[in-house]
Predict the structure of Phospholipid-transporting ATPase.
Amino acid sequence: MEEWLYWSLRHLSLGLGVMYSLERPVQGRSSCSKDRLGRKRRTVVSSLTEDEELTEILKSYSSNKVTTTKYSFLSFIPKNLFEQLHRFANIYFIFLAALNFVPVVNAFQPEISIIPILLVLAVTAVKDLWEDYRKHKSDKFINGLVCEIYSRKQQMYVDQRWQDVHVGDFVRLSCNEIIPADMLLLYSSDPHGVCYIETANLDGETNLKQRQVVRDLPRQGSELTPENFHSRIECENPNNDLSRFRGFMEYPSKARVGLHNNNLLLRSCTIRNTETVIGIVVYAGHETKAMKNNNGPRYKRSKLERRLNVDVLWSVVLLVIMCLTAAIGHGLWLRNLKDTSFLIPDTTSPALSGFYLFWTMIIVLQVLIPISLYVSIEIVKLCQIFFIQNDVDFYNEYMDSRIQCRALNITEDLGQIQYVFSDKTGTLTENKMVFRRCTIAGVEYPHEENARRLEVYEEDEAMGCSHTLKSRASAKSLSCKSLSCNRSSVSLHTLTGHSEGEESPSPTLPRHSAFSSPMEKDIVPDPFLVQKLNCLSSPLFLLRDASMELTYIVDFFMALAICNTVVVSSPNQPRHVVLASLPGMVSRTPLKSLEDIKMLFQRFGLPRFSTLSSPHTTESPRSFTQRGSWKGEGPPSEPRADELIYEAESPDEAALVHAARAYRCTLQGRSLERLLVELPGMGSLAVRLLHILPFDSSRKRMSVVVRHPLTNQVVVYTKGADSVIMDLAESPKGAEQSDGRQGHIREQTQKHLDNYAREGLRTLCIAKKVQTSTEYEIWLKRHAFAETSIENREELLLESAQRLETNLTLLGATGIVDRLQEEVPETIEALQRAGVKVWVLTGDKQETAINIACACKLLRTTDQLLTANCDSKEACKALLLELRAEVERGEAAEGTSGFTLVVDGRTLDFALQEDLKGDFLELSRRCRAVVCCRSTPLQKSHVVQLVRDQLRVMTLAIGDGANDVSMIQVADVGIGISGQEGMQAVMSSDFAISRFKHLRKLLLVHGHWCYTRLANMILYFFYKNVMYVNLLFWYQFFCGFSGSVMTNSWVLIFFNLLFTSAPPLLYGILDKDVSADTLIKLPELYKSGQNSKAYLPSTFWLTMLDALYQSLVCFFIPYFAYAGSDADMLSFGSPINASALLIILLHQVIESRTLTWLHVLVLVGSALFYFSFTLVFSVVCVTCSPPTNPLGVDKLQMSQPLFYGVCALTTVLALLPRFLFHALRNSISPSDTLKAALMDQLNPDNYCRRMQHWNQTQAQSKARGLIINVEDLDIKIPDFILPKELKECRAATGSVLS
């Protein structure tokens, strides 16, 4: 039952295409938009209210019943028919079917003409009905789920179905229950008003999120009583922004408390690690944020589809020309006709008859427009997606995930990509952030032992030792839902040793959170830094120089430990909280007195500093570790029962918390108002948490405001990008001596940051600020106003944060290593060989971006590096022109391998402006690769849009985080990586993969196959329709352009609809020109798709000419064969239809690159179906096709040798030119795909023999290729990467290249 529940919710929120965007909600969904009653805000009160006006307001809101289906029992037929009429092709064929009921223009039986369109509409309707029925089953199950709702009559919580929940109802939920509607958290069994939720059903993230009760409500002390709730809630109208909630709650005393996203429990999330929560519903049903994001599957028009629409219009033009020709011919024929004794007397003028004949010919030649092509394309694309999703190479055993195809109609675009735009972190790299080294107060700590530890992990992974990642592998399987929530009360006292006599939970189900593999958390401390921290236990630690440096070190690790939103838990306890009754708790005997510790921190709060001690020493780093009083430097072998587990929202946070813990600055617990932190030499301290200013892309930093447990001062700890923190790091006012010290620290820290960036490390700066009580009170008033605002709340909160985060004291910086994913260099190299230009768009420092570009082979050693760093628009324009001239000189010179452009964010701002983007685009177009560093999410999307629109190329964007969403949505094809940063990118993408390396096979193999298969199938459809329609057109020249046909109407209708419909489908699904291994080894083959070689306008018109020639042969050979005989119209048409069928089927055999037993079965089956149908039809049908009588015609024809002779001669002559054309072209100028296909056919022994022969005769040749004699055919094959066996043979026989 639980699996079905999760599947249904996934189907509701993920399978239907939840699109999570960082952008503001679109107009009409924003909080300023009006609801159905015209209100700009939503008012929510208790549903128990007796106020009739408020009750009416609550009734006006949507109920919680969810309906994702399109149709009802009565509306299905009219509504589905109305939707299908939105397709122009369906309207066209319905018009022709109706036209055939008009007596003056009908061509054959009206009933027969409606069969094709009815069949197409019926197939589509059945498909839509099946999809809608599946949605109906899911809706019924979800609406029938049960939750506890407070009943006024019974004055207790009773079980009710989800669909009976309404806005204003009080809902009580227990651990592991799913939230039925968006509700405001009013009560939590946690004494500090904290609730934990898992949002996997909503955004795919499995790590826990913390939510808190509305301020002032936790002090109730007991469970919320709904009858006593008389507050009024004012909030924004329903919208689709999952990360925002604005409003306020007004108590009966008229006091207002601001509401934010941390107070809101979203529908389809799951309660974790909390026994009981109570909330009041504010949004229900389709007004919940989850349903507002339910936009259905993504739809994009592929490039091939746009080309197809153009060719359909050309077919319409061709149809009109043919009908006009017939109409004019018919009018002229009637006008010049002298003896009309065989005609029924008619007063209709020749001109009017020609007009009628025009519409008759429209009906007769309607097959020229391929009615079944669109349905066939949908079927082929579904099969292509099936093959992609079931490719075992895309399966990630570590994450237990496979590729997701979220866009159903752009598979062929994968074979035409020309530009790839990639994020760096989490896309090219692992996004497993591991603390590598740090600098504190200007002193660098290299952590050499930690570096050697990481090298050991890399070697183990390279050798296939999976034990180092065992804990991460179990992250999904052993999630938090395995914990026993009925014992969570025990965990509340874990830190203080209290127990209530209950048995402790069994430790047999250890839980591992994200970002907590041994590689990430088992950090080896730097001995030099350990020794300094050990000075806290020394009587000399209050010396001037030592104490000043220690203040920096302790504050540095304090910031790492608490400047985050990490949730703390342990393998056998849900989470650790801080008891409010112990504000200054010290669980261990401190190594020094609190007075000394206070003096230490107070000294750092004053502007009195001295110079730092030099880091040099005469003892080895290892001796410090041995002499120091440090415990447990090595990684633990097995997790202890009391080991802490950190639930972090990002790998950066987890890496820094683990680093602080390695130095015994341990985050032990978290509550709504307090943090429990253990510091070396001081024991466990309860730190009062005043505010959290979360990270955002505009500030590029996050801060926490705390009340220091020792000094009682208000302290702001900030971490963020070095480019931002270094600018905010100013000296305190009036600190004359500190100017030199802070300047020295900033200078040294900047040098270390540059070194870190050159090593490819991610850098973060750490800073602090001590506020006076007066300053804090002034800031708090403005911040409280911003928190309670509904309009412009984000802007006010941003201004408030920026006012606080000024004049920071720089503490230090960290260097975090983020390794490349496996096979990233090989993938990028293969894409570049395939003619794809790869751009990397990252927010990292320029040095880091260049280092990663070198590591992943985006930047080659032979490339010339061009950097663009400008401070003004004028300088940017001059530099772009200068770099462009340099590139042009390099292109003119010989021996230049290529250029790589590196642009920083500020320069990119200038380059994207209207008057400079042309120069920037021209420069970047000439470069092999481009790296944009320090770029914002908006800049990423603008770059992709600029290249896509201006160069008119096919673009692909790939990323793994929420900051990549806009870029992914702008590109022609968006790829999301299901990595460490949640599922926002995946939900906005067209395809989702787990590793960057999968991009190689997705494009080079499946992209190539999808494009060539679909392009060839579309051309084949046009060919067979034009070929058959021309037969009817040529007959008009011999029947006075009367609109008559030489076949019965049943065969005419079924010829394209049934007899020749299956082979093209098989052609589009299974045709394979080159094997997957060869496509991987020869990326150059991908260029044929980039250049649209399979479906060019010239290819289309050559196909039309070939169809014209074949129709002439197919018509006139039977015509001359039966000339002068007594064969009637149907007898003449019988060999024509049979020959046309054989020509069309054998034409596909010539064009197919793959012939299997399945192809033979379908081709032979189609032919047998035709002959069986016509034989049975001619035997049993007497009046099936009035006014003609087909009785016995085909039976008689198939009994005569002339019939078979005509069919054989016609088929050979019709296909001979195409066969000769292929033979000559493949002999004289074979395509790359043909050469690769021949390589597939060669076995290694045959290849070795021919290579040895070549070496003996052509050893001195300087040609850049090799000639292989295949079946007495000399074909020049370029020096591609050969299969492994052929490589070994080639190495043994020697190189043949110059």
Q: What stands out?
A: The first strand starts at residue 41 and ends at 44. Residues 394 and 998 are 6 Å apart (CA to CA). The chain has a mean pLDDT of 77. The first helix runs from residue 2 to 15.
